[in-house]
Design a protein that fits this description.
It contains ten helices and ten strands. With 263 residues, it is α/β, with parallel strands linked by helices. α3 runs parallel beside α5 and α5 runs parallel beside α6. The structure holds adenosine-5'-triphosphate and magnesium ion.
Length: 263
Amino acid sequence: MIEIESARVSFSLGAGEEHVVLKNLSLSVKEGQTVSIIGSNGAGKSTLLNAIAGTVPLRAGIICIDGVDCTRQAEWERARYVGRVRQNPLAGTAGAMTILDNLALASRKGPRRLKIATPPVIARRMAEEVAQLGMGLESRLHENVSRLSGGQRQALTLLMAVISKPAVLLLDEHTAALDPANAEKVSALTKRFIQEFGLTALIVTHDMSRALSEADRIVMMHDGEIIADLSGEEKTSMTVAGLVDLFRKARGRDYAEDRDLLR
Ligand SMILES: Nc1ncnc2c1ncn2[C@@H]1O[C@H](COP(=O)(O)OP(=O)(O)OP(=O)(O)O)[C@@H](O)[C@H]1O
Ligand SMILES: [Mg+2]
């Protein structure tokens, strides 16, 4: 469960000026809910995820995860509640480490144990987990991650993000850098992991049809604010054209080029 109350994020422009990126944003996400976050470039979607993960601090407001106020917690302190996958396939894994060591780290065996060999029983479990990806990586556990393709690496990052069953899964355009076949594969895996582990997930995407099919709820952002929040029947009956239209209506035609929303 995520509860965000009146979150404000701003960046200093120098000379006492501030660029306000999240404007008193409030959002509550129930346990087990999957939310697609959509909106124009620069709307503040990544910043919202960064604020939840603790990468950027709030100037005002509160963020609670599973009832714990983590507003003032550092990113590393929140890492035990938060699983994360970013757009860049190179970002979520350590290229100079093996698949096995990356997974051992992610499953919270802890950095102190990295220097010693992973016990065979854990290695076997990891091989089973990696086999779930359906990418043949289970026979390559001792290879360095730098040898994997972008799609393989992103699938591994996803597994690393979910393996500890985090309270919150944050996905920021995590299939955007992949070719259509791999994007489809990672997207299907995402759906499966979320369902299997009953995760609470926020998925940022510019792919409107994926946004509609992957989530129980759609949150549309523009200029640091939530301008639409659809769930239940409203979401079920929504279409891609309907979303673009909603964006037009909410912001006025000047802002509402389709390319702002879709990319
Ligand atoms: N570290 C930072 N320092 C200064 N400005 C920032 C920083 N991070 C984000 N911004 C600004 O905040 C605004 C929102 O950026 P953000 O990355 O959250 O947008 P977004 O909705 O994820 O856009 P996109 O769809 O292009 O990824 C932008 O104007 C951006 O320049
Ligand atoms: Mg972004």
